[in-house]
Specification:
The structure holds two protein chains of two kinds.
Chain A: H1 18-42, H2 47-56, H3 80-99, H4 103-108, H5 111-128, H6 139-156, H7 160-165, H8 167-194, H9 208-218, H10 223-233, H11 237-265, H12 272-304, H13 314-331, H14 336-354, H15 357-388, H16 395-420, H17 430-438, H18 444-451, H19 461-490, H20 502-522, H21 527-546, H22 556-574, H23 591-594, H24 614-642, H25 650-674, H26 717-726, H27 728-734, H28 752-767
Helix pairs in contact in A: 1-3, 1-5, 3-5, 3-15, 5-15, 6-14, 6-15, 8-9, 8-11, 8-16, 9-11, 10-11, 10-19, 11-12, 11-14, 12-13, 12-14, 13-14, 13-15, 16-17, 16-19, 18-19, 20-21, 20-22, 22-25, 24-25, 25-26, 25-28
Chain B: H1 10-20, H2 24-37, E1 44-45, H3 46-50, H4 61-68, E2 84-85, H5 87-94, H6 106-124, H7 134-145, H8 152-172, H9 186-192, H10 198-201
Antiparallel strand pairs in B: 1-2
Helix pairs in contact in B: 4-6, 7-8, 8-9
């Protein structure tokens, strides 16, 4: 492979540290070095390659004399395509890494802008190298490979509650707003194009229908751009869901308008019949897309019911079914985006009740990873495609388009809000309207749609593309960069910390029922009534079909409670046990403070946990024992190779105690992992302080006293272990009891740092038991 | 205000409108509903509420009905319960669910929030002593889960315990091990649901049109 290093100056290092500068330099060198194969390989000129072969003397003619065996051969054609793809992905990821090395830059300029600039650079470099820029933003590649991961990520993690509550508003903005934008922009552009008699430019050739088509392409708010920019500004949930929901749902309108105008632009006229058909087509496209998505979603949910024995492929079902939904919708020219959203949103509650914790994590991280890479690639490709052209700059057209986009958006939002506020309970204020209008960003979907246009039917295609790119640049750069300071300036409400407490959950449920009841008393079937009916239908019929086992009967409050406890248990292990949980309230209130002061119950059995069925008990005990053994073995081997193994050393006994402690915590976590049904949650009902109970053989419980109520500050890792050392023999025997620390003691202060580090290593080891632990996961639970 | 005639004219409505903030049309609609529920009698009793079929599958039905007969919700600083209510009391209780208007100052919004939270508090505090004790909170959670099958009281108890612990932690901060947290007072309740945005959530839409004939 030819490699050439051109001269360049590392740009934008500024006054960062030398290490950072060096890393950035390396990144840029790599960039330069990798650009050339990209440029070279994608050129149709393959003679380059054969020349190379000749030079190396590996491929000679058929009738040749015996030559020495080629020790090293180069054959690039075979791996060309996967190689290029990997290189692009690698480039995108390195860029993402690079940006975060320059902290100030990433806080001023949103990532999308930086990525477009990188794309421009790469495109420029390729052009400079004399190679032909690869047509990277090919519409097929974009719509079939780059867009679906982003939309699936958005759909799967769509916050259903605010989405449904604001659905009317969102639909109004998406449908009526987009229609208004399209016709306004298209119409005014046509008018402007006609009123230029003095300056005979090609604008005169512009007819009405291509104008309207252009209007419909440019009017749609782009979900990728919105996501990229809004993610960094953290505005409140309502505004976020309004703009984002609009960008998702306007796909149906865009698809219909695009096909309608494209179809008839060649003919030249659109009759009333076509208009009516267009309206019908809109409903078919939108509802059809949702239906297709819902069907696939239900199929996925149903499939996940049976995956309890093959947990490893669970994420695959989620991805494949969703992608199939998208592709199926695209077959019939239905709205693929809506299909994907519907599929993800429908399948999520059922799938999450069925799959294991690890599968859930896998799905989450894969979706985030793919959507992140896709987004990065899309912006880079936008930059590259800009350099590529083809461009036909027309000052009038472009400037009028940009101005019209802004004006149309503002008028549309203001007008629609006036109407919408009549029907909303929580009205939209002027500030909200401003953010909604300002957040209407255009992105790569518009460009790809423009790219799809046929040059013969649309002679003005180049001009369209130039205008589209200008609008995209304007919205992403200008609006993207200024929206953050504007949000600060206008003091728009920000996103609240997502600290869902059990009280809020209780009151959310309570409020739902209360409002439903009041509506019934008032005598009109409103919003809450139908929601309640849907919930009851869901609980009665659908959940039974789609969720495996006992999970189907679990009410939401209990599921939420389990989730919370699971989280706390995991945080407990990860924070090292003795330390107070970072998320826990900084207080010393414990269970004993809220229990009413009664004389202790006559029968101690009153507080005993309910008996488990015999089979389950055995199962749990067996699993705990095997887990314990495995942990012990692991710890022992860990000790042998990595930790100081001198039994006469002072700190060793502490280390042993720590190991015991870790073992217990691991047991506790595995207990939590198994504890997902109603019978066992009591062992975790006290997250901050635990009462002492003698361990009985019949029911496995773990009671650990973590926090001394008297002195929370003195509770730290090392203290605990020192004190625990005094009870070591008891710990050995019963394995589960611990007394509260009696007071600071021990002279081992200098070993603190060492022990802390070892502690960390142990924690990391324990928190990832590895794939072999998967067999024990016979109980699905909600993470 | 004495007993209302069967067809109150405008002057009666003006008074009610001022008191509760409903519009005349809304009061008219609600009045029709009142008469429908009470079978054209002057007052509503608890069994009238129990006749509403839609309400039967509501897990917290009893508490909702109780709220209508709770004097603390009549905005007259009364206490205790009554056996029957007239239209005015019905309207006053309903007015707790009116959405806040678009242009409100911060203090007005705050007072609307307090009012709605007070309503919720009264619903939980069944013995009128000004605090929600652990028992009362347990009862709330039990009722919420009552329709969800045979999950037993233990679950409800532990959820309520965890919730109570959270409230105590938020409100009290540090407590000695022998101190006892009496119960949730109204200030603690306010603090607890500070982020809850109750003024935008605890609303229903009161129609200006009459749809009562469509449903029982």
């Amino acid at each position: 492979m030819p490699s050439r290093t051109g001269s360049h100056s590392p740009a934008g290092i500024g006054k960062s540290l030398p290490e950072r500068g060096l890393l950035l330099l390396m990144v840029l060198v790599f960039l330069e070095g990798s650009v050339l194969p990209l440029g070279a390989a994608s050129s149709p000129d393959t003679s380059h390659q054969t020349n190379l072969g000749d030079h190396q003397g590996t491929h000679t003619g058929p009738n040749s004399t015996k030559k020495p065996f080629p020790v090293l051969a180069v054959e690039y054609d075979r791996v060309q395509i996967p190689f290029e793809i990997s290189l692009w992905v690698l480039l995108a990821s390195l860029m993402k890494l690079g940006f975060h090395l320059i902290p100030r830059l990433s806080s001023i300029v949103p990532e999308s802008c930086l990525l477009i600039v990188v794309g421009l650079l790469v495109g420029g470099l390729i052009k400079l190298a004399g190679e032909e820029v690869p047509p990277v933003l090919d519409s097929r590649l974009f719509f079939l490979c780059l867009l679906p991961p982003i939309i699936l990520d958005a759909g799967y993690f769509l916050p259903i509650r605010p989405f449904m509550e604001n659905l009317g508003t969102i639909l109004m903005f998406a449908v009526v707003g987009t229609l208004w934008n399209a016709f306004f922009i298209g119409g005014v552009l046509y008018g402007v194009a006609q009123i230029q008699p003095a300056n005979p430019s090609d604008l005169h050739q512009l007819e009405l229908l291509p104008c309207l088509l252009f209007g419909s392409i440019i009017s749609a708010v782009d979900p990728v751009a919105v996501l990229a920019v809004f993610e960094e500004i953290h505005i409140n949930e309502l505004l976020h869901i309004l703009v984002f929901g609009e960008s998702l749902l306007n796909d149906a309108v865009t698809v219909v308008l695009y096909h309608l105008f494209e179809e008839y632009a060649g003919v030249g006229t659109v009759t009333l019949l076509d208009g009516v058909l267009g309206v019908i087509s809109f409903f078919v496209v939108a509802l059809g897309g949702v239906l297709v998505g819902a069907i696939y979603g239900i199929l996925a949910a149903f499939t996940s019911r049976f995956t309890s024995h093959t947990r490893v492929i669970e994420p695959l079902f989620v991805f494949v079914y969703s992608y199939m939904a998208y592709l199926s919708a695209e077959i019939f020219h239905l709205s693929g985006i809506m299909a994907l959203i519907a599929c993800g949103a429908v399948m999520r509650p059922y799938v999450e009740a069925n799959i294991s914790h690890k599968s859930h994590t896998t799905i989450k991280y894969f979706l985030k990873m793919w959507s992140s890479v896709s987004e990065t690639l899309i912006f880079i490709f936008l930059g590259v495609a800009t350099v590529d052209g083809p461009h036909a700059w027309n000052w009038t057209f472009v400037t009028v388009t940009v101005i019209l986009c802004l004006v149309a958006r503002v008028i549309g939002v203001v007008g629609l809000t006036y109407v919408i506020n009549k029907f909303r309970i929580v009205k939209l204020t002027t500030k909200d309207q401003f953010i909604i209008a300002y957040g209407g960003l255009r992105g790569a979907i518009a460009f790809s749609l423009g790219f799809l246009l046929n040059q013969d039917h649309f002679p003005m295609r180049k001009m369209f593309l130039t205008a589209i790119i200008t609008v995209i640049f304007f919205t992403v750069f200008v609006q993207g960069m200024t929206i953050k300071p504007l949000v600060e300036l206008l003091a728009v409400k920000k996103k609240q910390e997502a600290k869902r407490s059990i009280n809020e959950e209780i009151h959310t449920q309570f409020l739902d029922h209360l409002l439903t009841g009041i509506e019934d008393i008032c005598g009109h079937y409103g919003h809450h009534h139908w929601k309640d009916k849907l919930n009851r239908f869901n609980k009665k019929y659908v959940k039974k079909c789609l969720i495996a086992g006992e999970r189907s009967k679990e009410p939401q409050l209990i599921a939420f409670y389990h989730k919370m406890e699971m989280k706390q248990a995991i945080e407990l292990v990860e924070s090292g046990g003795g330390v107070k949980l970072p998320s826990a309230m900084p207080s010393t209130v414990s269970m004993q403070n809220i229990q009413p002061k009664k004389p202790p119950p006559a029968k101690p059995v009153e507080r005993v946990l309910p008996q488990l069925p015999k089979g389950r008990e055995e199962e749990i005990r067996k699993i705990l024992r095997s887990n314990l053994q495995r942990t012990r073995q692991r710890l022992r081997s860990y000790n042998r190779h990595t930790l100081v193994a001198d039994p006469y050393e002072d700190g060793f006994s502490d280390l042993l105690i720590k190991n015991q402690r870790m073992v217990e915590l691991e047991k506790k976590v595995s207990d939590a992992l198994l504890v997902s049904t109603k019978e066992d949650i009591l062992s975790f009902s006290d997250p901050q302080a635990y009462s002492m109970k003698p361990v009985s053989d019949s029911v496995p419980t773990i009671q650990v006293d973590l926090a001394s109520p008297q002195s929370p500050d003195s509770v730290n890792l090392l203290d605990e272990f020192r004190h625990a050392g005094q009870q070591q023999p008891e710990v050995e025997d019963q394995g589960l009891m611990m007394k509260p620390p009696s007071g600071p003691s021990g002279p081992n202060k200098p070993r603190e740092a060492d022990e802390a580090r070892d502690q960390q290593k142990l924690m990391r080891c324990l928190s990832d038991p590895g794939p072999s632990a998967d067999e024990d996961e016979d109980e699905p639970f909600l993470p | 205000m004495g007993a209302l005639q069967s067809l109150p004219g405008q002057p009666e409505y003006i008074d009610l409108a001022e008191k509760t903030g409903f519009s005349f049309e809304q009061i008219g609609v609600l009045h029709k509903r009142f008469k429908q529920l009470s079978h054209n009698e002057e007052t509503l009793r608890r069994d009238h509420f129990n006749e509403i079929p839609d309400l039967a599958c509501n897990p917290i039905r009893a508490q909702i009905v109780e709220a209508f007969f709770d004097r603390r919700n009549f905005r007259q600083n009364g206490e205790g319960t009554v056996e029957e209510i007239g239209f005015e009391e019905f309207l006053v209780v309903m007015s707790h669910f009116r959405p806040p208007s678009l242009h409100m100052t911060e203090e007005q919004r705050e007072s609307v929030r307090k009012e709605k939270l007070r309503f919720l508090f009264n619903m939980h505090d069944t013995d009128n002593d000004g605090t929600i004790t652990l028992e009362e909170y347990r009862h709330v959670v039990e009722e919420l889960l009552s329709r969800s099958g045979a999950l037993g009281k233990e679950t409800a108890k532990s959820i309520a315990d965890a919730a109570m612990l959270e409230v105590a932690s938020i409100s009290m901060g540090h407590m000695e091990p022998d101190e006892f947290y009496e119960g949730i007072t109204f200030e603690h309740f306010l603090k607890l649901l500070n982020e809850f945005e109750i003024e935008s959530r605890m609303n229903i839409r009161f129609l200006n049109m009459d749809t009562t004939t469509l449903c029982k």
